[in-house]
Here is the input.
Amino acid sequence: MPDLDTGAAALAKTIVGSGSLNTTRTALATVSIGVDAAGVKQAPVVTMRGSGVALGCTWLAGTVVEDGDTVLVQILGADQSPKTGLVLGKVTSSAAPATGVVTAVPSGSATITVTAEWLGSIDCVFVGSAPAVGDTVMLLWQGGQAVCVGKRTTTESTSGTSQSTGSTAGGRGSASSGVTQVRATDSATWTAGYNWNSYFGRAVYQGTWGSTGPSYGCFFYGRGAAGLSSRTVTGLRVWLGPRKRAGYYTSAVQVVFSLHGLRSKSGTPSLTGAQSVSVPAGFLGGWCSLPASWGDDLAGGAGIAISGPGYAGFAGVGESPQSGLLEFTWKG
Here is the structure.
């Protein structure tokens, strides 16, 4: 176990401004969670972005992370002194809403689908009995996983009974059109001969390099888009994260988007459909248009893959939480 007393003393010494540790700065870092030979997960390791240097850290109580998450770290120590860090928290592209409205309760499933305000449709686990479609529920967040902890109610002063404040899906159940965003639950790269390629982490790569087989970068959504199964999708686009310094990254590259049939990183992706988009050198992330006809497949649990002849890589959900975000425009 880390020596928390020593870490706390170092932090206190920094705050009061005495000694050689009278320097602090904040920086982004990446969390890595290894697995030993017996398959047991190891304690998280924090690696500084850009330098690849592992940093000894203490953690705020209650911090929940997953492999590949981006965290904000307060670094303690002058330039030439030993350094330690305090993990301040996980960094994401959006705050997490406290409530959502249930849109699907699949029979026999351990998860339900909820419209979580500005995040759009997500899958979440639930505590106790499953709520009903249309219920407004309270959400707690464990890292990136939403947990439904119960139906939100209000007390009627005249009868003392509880009445749901829930409305139809996200308050939009009677709407004839709308826009819904669905965030990717994970991302990874499959390479022929290497299966799910751990070398790439959660980044997404396409094409071939050297003697390796073709790579397909995949985004996964679980059942996050299931709430759109009764809608007609009229527009669809995906946010692709910043381009990695890989291959001929100083030149434009054709990225070929396709559908794959996997809800999570298991099995072999089988690609269908193709939408080619030219991505420039120095791409910092942005929206790419996809065929609206893919809406039904995505609502059924499919995901998005990138392939193509040009070797290129892009930040996945670990580095860029918005990467893989789908935006559906719908009617009906």
The CA atoms of residues 122 and 224 lie 4 Å apart. The two ends are 56 Å apart (CA to CA).
